[in-house]
Design brief:
Helix content is 74%, strand content 1%. It is mostly helical. A hairpin with a 5-residue loop joins β1 (291-292) and β2 (298-299). The radius of gyration is 27 Å and the shape is globular.
């Protein structure tokens, strides 16, 4: 009251009262690297999540080789490819739900569900072949356990891994996503090695049970360490049966995003066609020797003593280089999609010319090494690409946009390897390389187109902001009271 009276008296005396400026509020800038230990725990969790989802998919070539040579010799190449393709399909398809649940911070429900399905899938796989002798495998149960059940477990971890680290590392999101994705390459090396060793030392049933215990242990580590970032606003789930809860119409309206989803779909349809057939390719071309690991010493003649299994291991191992290198380059350029386009173009050249015409063992090893590097780059960048494309005002929807992308990709991840298997059966092994090369060429074009549209949109928005700023009249704040 006294302040009001003093103000009134000063006005009556003709004094001018200037408004006092409010003190500036200091906002601490976001550090380059997070200072909370939970961010780095989430990085470790993301590594093990990728280790157990795409790491297992990358290892399927070793399983497929055993099925083809020993357990399921009467099953066609198309049927055996369907098991791995089902894993990829189910890993991706439900991501539209997983991504939205992550935006609503339902992380732990997804983590526990993933652990349960993934562990049970591989544990029950050990009971699909009785003693593991020749032709004792049951194809239907193999597909049901390692294809259907394990695939549903993988999807819970996949979107979770990239979504969590991108939110914890806003200024280093491309590098963080790249580090996390190396888990897929590590799993693609360790799981085939462990599978070969355990099955040859014991038997298929016992070896796969031990392998399932490794899956259980590493997924529990991921479950314990995968803490969500509380700095990002939580989006309530809303009505479960409402389409807008799961699908963001703004994403569908975005032309760069739609082109990007189509391009990523072609990447997965093309790359895994080579990955699923690389050991068989090495055998057919005479680049190495195939072990019949379930019986101990069986071999098929080849031009060298190099085991065909190692071609898959080399491809998965060198993919780690590609995952890390592409993350560094994407951070430097601040544009992961350009990196994506370049690697797809180079992969197309390799698939079109080196796969059909590799002259010897050394050339085959070089192909697997370089294709693995490029494949690691292609497979690690999609989530970063969504983070690049999504508008600032919809950053809290990144999980939803990422999940929508993966669900759209899932169809081609299922169909692509099956098309390659059908082409291989009709035209021979070289057709797999031609199929992959053709998809990679189209992918590079679509990525480049998406970048062009994104930059055009950004320039249009920038122009509108400048124009709006010029039209706004300058206001002077006198603050005088007469």
């Amino acid at each position: 009251m006294s302040t009001l009276i003093e103000s009134r008296n000063s006005v009556e005396k003709g004094q001018t009262r200037m408004p006092t400026a409010s003190p500036a509020v200091s906002v601490s800038p976001t550090p380059e690297w997070p200072r909370d230990w939970k961010a780095y725990a989430a990085l470790v969790a993301g590594f093990f999540m990728m280790f157990n989802c795409w790491g297992m998919v990358n290892a399927y070539g070793a399983f497929m080789g055993l099925y083809d040579e020993h357990l399921l010799t009467k099953s066609s190449d198309l049927q055996l490819s369907l098991v791995g393709a089902t894993e990829s399909f189910l890993l991706l398809l439900p991501s539209i739900f997983a991504g939205r649940l992550l935006d609503a911070r339902r992380h732990y429900y997804l983590g526990f569900t993933g652990f349960l399905f993934l562990f049970l899938g591989y544990f029950l796989l050990s009971f699909t072949s009785r003693q593991g002798l020749k032709d004792q495998g049951n194809y239907g149960f193999v597909w049901l356990t390692s294809g259907l059940m394990a695939g549903l477990g993988m999807t819970c971890f996949f979107t979770y891994s990239s979504h969590n680290v991108i939110q914890w590392f806003p200024k280093k999101k491309y590098i963080a996503a790249g580090i996390t994705s190396t888990g897929a390459g590590a799993g693609g090396i360790i799981y085939p090695l462990a599978f070969k060793f355990l099955v040859s030392e014991f038997s298929f049933p016992v070896g796969v049970r031990i392998l399932s215990s490794i899956v259980a242990g590493t997924t529990l580590i991921a479950f314990a360490l995968g803490t969500p970032c509380v700095d990002v606003p939580r989006r309530n789930l809303g009505r479960v049966f409402q389409i807008s809860t799961w699908i963001d119409k703004e994403a569908i309206k975005s032309k760069p995003y739609v082109l990007y989803v189509i391009a990523v779909a072609l990447v997965y349809g093309g790359f895994y066609s080579v990955a699923f057939h690389v050991t068989e390719w090495a055998e057919v071309k005479g680049f190495g020797t195939e072990d019949i690991i379930a019986e101990g010493n069986g071999e098929k003649p080849g031009n060298s003593g190099f085991r065909t299994f190692w071609f898959l291991a080399i491809m998965n191992g060198t993919s780690i280089i590609g995952r890390l290198a592409s993350a560094v380059v994407a951070t430097r350029w601040n544009n992961p999609i350009i990196v994506h386009a370049a690697t797809c173009f180079l992969a197309a050249i390799l698939a079109l010319f080196f796969w059909p015409f590799a002259p010897n063992n050394a050339a085959a090893i070089a192909f697997c090494s370089i294709f693995g590097i490029l494949g690691g780059s292609m497979l690690s960048l999609p989530a970063s690409g969504v983070a690049y494309l999504i508008p600032d005002e919809r950053k809290s929807h990144v999980g939803q946009w990422t999940g929508m992308m993966w669900s759209g990709v899932s169809i081609f991840a299922l169909v692509g390897p099956l098309i390659a298997a059908a082409l291989r059966r009709k035209f021979g092994m070289d057709a797999v390389g031609y199929w992959t090369g053709a998809t990679m060429v189209l992918t590079a074009v679509l990525f480049t187109w998406a970048v062009y549209l994104k930059r055009r949109e950004d320039k249009a928005i920038e122009g509108e902001e400048i124009k709006a700023g010029e039209q706004t009249p300058s206001s002077t704040e006198s603050g005088a009271v007469v």
